[in-house]
Amino acid sequence: MERRTVFSSRSSRVARGGLIAALALSIAGGVSPSGAFAADDEPLIYYPTFSGASKTLERNGSADILTSSGRLHQRILRLTAGGYRQVGSAWSRTKLDLGESFESTFKVYLHHFQPGADGIAFLVQDDGPRALGGWGGGLGYRGIVRSVAVEFDTFQNSTDPSNNHLAVVMGGNPDHHSAVGEPSIPLYGKPFLARVNYDADSNDLRIYVKSLRAGSEEELALQTTVDLADEVGSSSAWVGFTAATGNALSKQDIYSWTVDGSGA
Fold first, then answer.
1. What mean pLDDT is predicted for residues 239-252?
2. How far is CA 78 from CA 184, 203, 255, in A?
3. CB distance 155 to 142 below 8 Å
4. Which three-class secondary structure state does DSSP give residue 230?
5. How far is 127 from 35, CA to CA, in rounded Å?
6. Given the DSSP bridges, would you call strands 251-260 and 96-97 parallel, antiparallel or unpaired?
7. CA 157/CA 141 separation, integer angstroms
8. Exposure pattern of 213-235 as b/e (b: 16+ CB <10 Å)?
């Protein structure tokens, strides 16, 4: 089974430790990886920024790689750009082995209009690298049947508990939540860090969130049990993000993304 970095330039490989330290400072204290992954393990996917990612990420719909405004001024993945009924998805070209434990960490900023809609989702899916789902409450993954989604939802549709919740969803149907969590931090209007941890032996799935304010602590926002390989229908899957807007709008950005796991 192959293990490789999806994106790592020569300079980033040489200075990987320095980049990680700089990233941690830029997000005001990042989340430490779980003890299941050794510090010297090479990440399967490694984007401290999305510079150069146009060669290694499949992007669909409204998803784009661009330079952010503001102080950071870095290359980011923008899934929706603040337009009506936009849908975007982005997938790593390296498939993830679902029979092995993995952990994914990503910095998110959902912003622009009030109220913001509709949110993003982190997915493992076996529909393929062109997979793109429905707009609005579909969060860009409605109809991606061979999938498990972790959604970060910022708009309350009729089947949602609130306008600030997480959910695990099977089979590309966001109208039916397998598990739901409501974090204490806002998912919209302020950047946050998310960490998805999966234990393949116990099928334990945990989603953590952390505000980027100084002194903030990570919180466990949702925990459930799911056999990812069984739900996806494959021992491996593409991994990435979807997002959508409807009649309420937002810019939905990913600033950094790593996955520690095994390639298929």
1. 96
2. 25, 31, 9
3. no
4. helix
5. 31
6. unpaired
7. 15
8. eeeeebeebbebebebbebbebe
- List the structure tokens of 161: 């508990």
Using the structure block, give the residue that is written with the tokens 């939802």: 153
Q: For the residues of 91-143, what is the DSSP string, one character each?
A: EESSPEETTS-EEEEEEEEEESSSS---EEEEEEESS-TT----SGGGTTTTT
pLDDT in tens, 92-129: 999 999 999 999 999 999 999 888 899 999 999 999 99
Report the C-alpha gap between 228 and 216 in whole angstroms.
31
Residue of higher predicted confidence among 27 and 69 = 69
Q: How many CB atoms lie within 10 A of CB 208?
A: 20
Which pTM value belongs to this model?
0.85
Which burial class, exposed, middle or buried, applies to 206 when counting CB atoms under 10 A from its CB (0-12, 13-18, 19+)? middle
Q: Kindly list the structural domains of the chain, giving each domain's residue range(s) and its CATH number in brackets, ordered by start.
A: 10-260 (2.60.120.200)
At residue 115, the pLDDT reads 85
Q: Find the angle CA(212)-CA(217)-CA(98) to the nearest 5 degrees.
A: 85
**Type of residue at 8:** S
Tell me the pLDDT tens digit for each residue of 121-179. 999 999 999 999 999 999 999 999 999 999 999 999 999 999 999 999 999 999 999 99
Count the residues in the chain.
264
